[in-house]
Specification:
By secondary structure, this protein is mostly helical. The chain is about 65% helix and about 5% strand. A two-stranded antiparallel sheet has the order 1-2.
Length: about 200
């Protein structure tokens, strides 16, 4: 298959994802757990992208162009019901970063997301959630100074600055903290068990 055609396929999968996300924001449904329609689309996109990766390897900028490479990363980042696929992509992405073929920030976001889904501390503080007081904060990380050093090394702002940005973003999207934080945590843990992130 031509790389141009592959790039177009990846971009159209991303566009479908973002379109659905916008609809959920408009309907005020984005923060209400993992929407079934969205999970279905994320799984479908992950399957499509895995077929592409099996054919051409990781979609690096030199293979599919910057837009499609970024789109592939977004699809991977959203394929949270597919632990094996996400872990496989993290390895491929790490190799691509070592060859300077993708943005290292993408790897930071993906490794953090995997760590959080596995119940481990994140290294870059890229993943946020509501805390017990209904405030948006980074998910657990190892050490603030180290996190900020790692962030700086790949061109990210400080975690304090990012926290402010994220809080403004959820306000702009009218996302509200869950009514019952404990119940939501319980549901998330059940889901993580069901898809295989935790035992």
């Amino acid at each position: 298959m031509e790389y141009n055609t592959i790039a177009e396929r990846i971009i159209s999968m991303r566009d479908a994802d973002l379109k659905l996300r916008d609809q959920l924001i408009q309907n005020g449904k984005l923060g209400e757990g993992y929407n079934e329609e969205m999970e279905k689309l994320h799984n479908q996109n992950a399957k499509g992208l895995e077929e592409i990766i099996d054919e051409i390897g990781y979609p690096t900028i030199d293979k599919v162009g910057k837009e499609a490479s970024e789109a592939a990363w977004l699809i991977i980042q959203h394929s949270i019901s597919q632990p094996n696929f996400m872990r496989k992509c993290a390895e491929l992405l790490a190799n691509a970063v070592s060859e300077n073929k993708v943005d290292p920030r993408n790897l930071a976001y993906l490794t953090d997301r995997i760590a959080v889904l596995e119940g481990k501390p994140q290294s870059y503080g890229t993943q946020f959630d509501w805390d017990a007081n209904g405030e948006l904060n980074p998910k657990p990380f190892d050490n603030l100074q180290k996190v900020n050093e790692r962030r700086k090394a790949i061109g990210l702002n400080t975690l304090e600055e990012q926290t402010e940005i994220m809080r403004r973003q959820v306000k702009a999207e009218n996302q509200l903290p869950p009514q019952d934080v404990e119940e939501r945590k319980h549901k998330v843990d059940q889901w993580r068990k069901a898809v295989g992130w935790i035992r």
